[in-house]
């Protein structure tokens, strides 16, 4: 009998390759590992079903969760393929990966030679710094007591140099992430979802931006940052330090790469190179690595690359490009006509005064709206009426700049840089804790293929006059865009025969936007997201 164990990935996953190879070497069972793009297949054969059952049990207990793992399958097959497959990754060129459960079992076992050894070499997952280590328990306990006493410590980890310390109002003075002792702590202090918990607990130990809750605000009174990236320890030094701090009733610490003052230095580790851990946005269906969303390419090149990566050149595809730093568009691709633009994001006005004038001259109700708005929000209008848009902003049409105009008009910011003003609206969206926002109008301007920015601003002003508070109205701006986009994609799917949608751009790191596309829009159409 032959069993095929199939593992599908969005990117190369060294740890799975290594563990499967190690398992092959440790067992006498006949096996073959074949690597192909986005897939690993392990074939094992035996006439004894019990041997196959024992192998499958050992395999399942050896494999950690990975954020790159997209699908698994086990099935009986007739033969083992003759394919050689792609070369497996060399141990010497392995990318960094977090420690595995076997690492933890060893460094937590007082009887093991690697007890409390931050330099442990793991033959299972490949973790290690190629250095002979020792028991670091006493040094780590001293570091934990120093942190409890309020000291900041500069330390080297396996992936880079950081400063760490207890979370206090002094953290307001610099950018930081939080390293939590475990997932229970994350659940205690944030709005983390079950899907985010699974991703955060994966072997890559990604960081995920979470909104802190009331308990966090009470226990860490004075800290003003509400959206913080949380992660678990991805390095044995941080893990052991976190464990000792937990025994001292400190459940999490800040970690920063900023050059802030510190009292102590721990530099026993010499990191081979600086590496940033992956940052994720997580939905029920998908995990996005945010670093993979940024691109220097224009949206046509970006779309073309995505089509190749997902092997979609034989289909008719819609592309939704939502980048913060380049043009945005809804594109169409077909073998017969190539890539064409279906919908653009343009800003015709050059100032807030021009925006008000355009609304006022549209019709009688528009004139009354502007008059009422200026009468009710005199201070806001006085601050923003002279704001002119940077020529670069008006040349580059994208969603975040359109939202920047909305944020300025609604009085959420006086920043004349539309991209930065748009980030203010996004911050409001991420801080929203409700379920629904007001219906803001997104329409296509008459006889154009462009979103009508004037109508969007006009209806947002109406809701501002009606007293809708800032977070709810900001969320309505995003939610209404998602509804508009969904209807637009439905329409071109019917008229153009679009079979699937490719979504791209770093606007996808805005969690509610990504979740709406991944969980709601995908019910009607297959949506492909960027993959490494």
How large is the share of residues in beta strands?
15-25%
Radius of gyration: 27 Å
Please summarize the sheet with the most strands.
9 strands, mixed
What oligomeric arrangement do these chains adopt? single chain
Return the average pLDDT rounded to an integer. Answer: 90
Give a count of the beta strands, DSSP E runs of length 2 or more: 18
**Class inferred from helices and paired strands:** alpha/beta
| Unreliable spans | none
Overall shape: flat
Number of helices: 18
Helical residues, percent: 25-40%
Main sheet: which strands, in order across?
11-5-6-10-7-9-8-12-13
Ends apart, CA distance between termini = 35 Å
Model description:
- By secondary structure, this protein is of the alpha/beta class.
- Helices cover 37% and strands 18% of the residues.
- The chain is built from 18 helices and 18 strands.
- The chain has helices at 14-26, 49-62, 101-107, 137-148, 183-189, 194-200, 214-219, 236-247, 299-309, 352-360, 364-376, 378-384, 391-395, 399-409, 418-431, 453-465, 470-496, 511-520; strands at 2-9, 30-36, 39-45, 69-77, 153-157, 160-165, 177-180, 207-211, 227-232, 252-256, 264-266, 279-282, 287-289, 317-321, 329-334, 338-344, 500-504, 526-528.
- Helix 18 links the parallel strand 17 (500-504) and strand 18.
- Helix 14 (399-409) packs parallel to helix 16 (453-465).
- It is flat and about 85 Å long.
- It starts with a strand and ends with a strand.
């Amino acid at each position: 009998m032959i069993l095929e164990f199939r593992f599908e990935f969005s990117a190369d996953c060294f740890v799975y390759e290594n563990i499967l190879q190690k398992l092959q070497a440790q067992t006498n069972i006949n096996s073959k590992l074949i690597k192909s793009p986005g897939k690993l297949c392990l074939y094992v054969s035996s006439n004894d079903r019990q041997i196959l059952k024992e192998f499958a049990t050992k395999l399942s207990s050896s494999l950690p969760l990975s954020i790159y793992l997209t699908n698994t399958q086990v099935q009986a097959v007739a033969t083992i393929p003759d394919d050689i497959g792609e070369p497996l990754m060399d141990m010497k060129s392995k990318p960094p990966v977090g420690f595995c459960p076997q690492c933890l079992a060893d460094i937590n076992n007082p009887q093991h030679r690697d007890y409390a050894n931050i330099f442990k070499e793991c033959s299972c997952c490949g973790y290690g710094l190629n250095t002979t280590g020792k028991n670091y328990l006493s040094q780590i306990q001293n570091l934990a007591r120093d942190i409890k006493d309020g000291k900041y410590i500069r330390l080297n980890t396996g992936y880079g140099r950081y400063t760490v310390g207890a979370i206090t109002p002094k953290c307001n003075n610099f950018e930081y992430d939080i390293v939590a002792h475990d997932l229970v702590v994350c659940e205690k202090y944030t709005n983390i979802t079950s899907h985010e918990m699974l991703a955060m607990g994966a072997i890559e130990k990604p960081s995920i931006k979470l909104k802190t809750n009331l308990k966090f605000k009470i226990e860490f009174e004075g800290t003003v940052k509400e959206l913080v990236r949380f992660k678990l320890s991805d390095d044995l030094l941080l893990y052991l330090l976190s464990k000792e701090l937990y025994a001292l009733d400190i459940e999490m610490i800040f970690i920063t790469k900023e050059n802030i003052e510190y009292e102590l230095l721990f530099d026993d580790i010499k990191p081979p190179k600086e590496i940033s851990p992956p940052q994720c946005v997580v939905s029920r269906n998908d995990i996005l690595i945010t670093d993979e969303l940024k691109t220097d390419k224009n949206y046509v090149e970006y779309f073309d690359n995505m089509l190749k990566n997902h092997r979609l050149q034989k289909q008719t595809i819609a592309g939704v490009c939502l980048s913060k730093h380049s043009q945005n568009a809804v594109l169409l691709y077909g073998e017969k006509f190539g890539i064409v633009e279906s919908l653009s994001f343009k800003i015709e006005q050059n100032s807030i005064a021009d925006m008000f004038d355009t609304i006022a001259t549209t019709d009688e109700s528009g004139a009354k709206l502007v008059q009422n708005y200026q009468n009710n929000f005199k201070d806001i209008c006085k601050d923003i009426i002279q704001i002119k848009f940077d020529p670069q902003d008006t040349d580059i049409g994208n969603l975040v700049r359109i939202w920047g105009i909305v944020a300025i008009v609604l009085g959420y910011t006086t920043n004349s840089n539309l991209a930065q003003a748009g980030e203010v609206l996004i911050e409001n969206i991420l801080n929203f804790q409700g379920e629904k926002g007001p219906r803001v109008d997104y329409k296509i301007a008459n006889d154009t293929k462009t979103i009508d920015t004037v109508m969007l601003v006009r209806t947002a002003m109406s809701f501002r006059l009606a007293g809708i508070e800032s977070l709810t109205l900001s969320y309505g701006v995003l939610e209404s865009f998602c509804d508009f986009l969904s209807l637009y994609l439905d329409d071109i799917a019917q008229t153009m025969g679009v079979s699937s949608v490719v979504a791209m751009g770093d606007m996808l790191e805005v969690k509610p936007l990504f979740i709406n596309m991944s969980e709601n829009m995908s019910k009607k159409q297959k949506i492909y997201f960027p993959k490494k």
